[in-house]
Specification:
mainly beta; Cathepsin D, subunit A, domain 1; 2 domains; six-stranded antiparallel beta sheet; 7 helices; 30 strands; PEPTIDASE_A1; protease; Aspergillopepsin-like_cat_dom; aspartyl protease
Length: about 425
């Protein structure tokens, strides 16, 4: 399904950056910055390699290609046998997959605060609700939104239904209510209330729903279109600028997010802006359960990424694009790029059991950078290795995207940059972080 891309060495060239106007200075203690937290299950650790890769396969529905150890087949995620044997080894339990970051969102009057997945790869605001069957069983592990208990809730037209690649799904109806997020209160915000959740979500104690921050095109409410929270913030003039920003946590360096405000104290490096690519792959939309959208719809934060670098060497990837996705942990790129990167590390090999590339834990890791637009961003050495493979080996955080024809720049990449998602001028701004 994906196109084959050649890897060609070339001379590195960077254009002059464009700086967005009307930004303000601030500090990390600024009230406009809000801490990005992790679910209790990941409080002191990151997801396993197995869970992280399976989540990506579930999310985007790819086949294995040369090097991807996971795939979507017959509407479930499977682990493949190995590099040279693409038969299914076993199905991946849906509950093995969770997001790494959650944010508190308060809904209703009186308000209830729920921890929602912070997700730049989807566009629904859906929550655990009192409309779920036997919802009392889950009140010890989840915060529940009850629209009937809110004085400001109004039932709205429309239903919603999200299906993921491993067969997990959620559906329900829609209310409008007051929603407070990052200090911004949004009246009449559409809230998708779950009436049914598959077992994958019922067993997931990490969140109380999802806050989608991608473009409106991939919102799944039908009958009548609803506005996303970011759309309403912009349209109602609730934020200074039509954007939001993300700095992901690394070690003791706390992460944060903001709406309408850019913090220029994060890094001394300037922010370089790149237009959002207008083409969205049909099969990526299918994987998210979004039907009948034209391929020109802007759904994801998808940008050009036409080259990468290993040390001082650069390699061309003509026509390549990448989606910036906080809901994916790994950095997933095409097979030729993956092979080139690990060929540069002494002793790196493909591990059939884990389904990905690994390298000796004491190996020297070169600087690896990916272009966004015409500027390169280097992955921090602390994030290159994702987890132990045992026996003195480490599993890499850069792996194969399978048969997809675009990359997924997940947390392994995003932790190394400060990101500005500008919905007003349809650009993404990035600045390299030093810490």
């Amino acid at each position: 399904m994906g196109c084959v891309q050649s890897v060609e060495e070339e001379t590195r060239v960077e254009n002059e950056p464009y700086y967005a106007p009307k930004v303000v200075e601030g500090g990390t203690n600024d009230r406009r910055l809000h801490r990005l937290t992790r679910p209790d299950i990941y409080r002191d650790r990151r997801p396993s390699f197995y869970s992280a890769y399976a989540r990506a396969a579930r999310r985007y529905g790819f086949e294995s290609g040369k090097y991807a150890g996971f795939a979507k087949r017959n509407n479930v995620v499977v682990k493949v046998c190995g590099r040279h044997d693409k038969a299914t080894d076993h199905e991946v339990p849906a509950e093995s997959v969770q997001n790494e970051y959650v944010v508190p969102v308060t809904i209703g009057n009186p308000g209830v605060t729920l921890n929602l997945d912070f997700d730049t790869g989807s566009s629904d605001l859906w929550v655990w609700s009192s409309e779920l069957a036997k919802v009392s069983q889950y009140t010890n592990t989840h915060s529940i939104y009850n629209p009937k208990a809110s004085r400001t809730a109004r039932h709205a037209h429309g239903t919603w239904d999200i299906s993921y690649g491993d067969g997990s799904s959620a559906s329900g109806d829609v209310y409008t209510d007051i929603v407070t997020l990052a200090g911004v209160t949004i009246p009449n915000q559409a809230v998708e209330c779950s009436k049914w959740l598959s077992s994958a979500f019922l067993k997931d104690g990490g969140n109380d729903g999802l806050l989608g921050l991608a473009w409106p095109a991939i919102n799944t409410v039908n009958t009548r279109r609803v506005k996303t929270p970011v759309e309403n913030m912009i349209d109602q003039g609730l934020i200074e600028e039509p954007l939001f920003t993300v700095k992901l946590s690394r070690g003791h360096h706390a992460g944060f997010y903001s709406f309408g405000y850019i913090d220029h104290t994060v890094t001394p490096h300037g922010i370089t802006y790149t237009p959002v690519d207008k083409w969205v792959a049909d099969f990526a939309l299918d994987a998210l359960g979004v039907p009948n959208l034209p391929t020109s719809s802007q759904g994801f934060w998808q940008v050009s990424s036409r080259s990468f670098a290993i040390g001082s060497r650069t390699f061309s990837r003509h026509g390549n694009t990448a989606i910036l996705d906080t809901g994916t942990s790994l950095c997933l790129v095409d097979d030729d790029t993956v092979r080139t990167i690990y060929d540069s590390i002494d002793g790196a090999i493909y591990d059939d059991r884990h389904g990905g590339w690994k390298y000796p834990s004491d190996a020297r890791i070169p600087n690896v950078a990916f272009a966004v637009g015409d500027k390169y961003y280097t992955i921090h050495p602390d994030d290159f290795g994702f987890g132990s493979a045992g026996h003195g080996y480490t599993l890499g955080g850069i792996q194969s995207r399978g048969d997809m024809n675009f990359d997924i720049f997940g947390d392994v990449f995003l932790k190394s940059v400060y990101v500005v998602f500008n919905q007003g001028d349809k650009t993404v701004g990035l600045a390299q972080r030093d810490e």
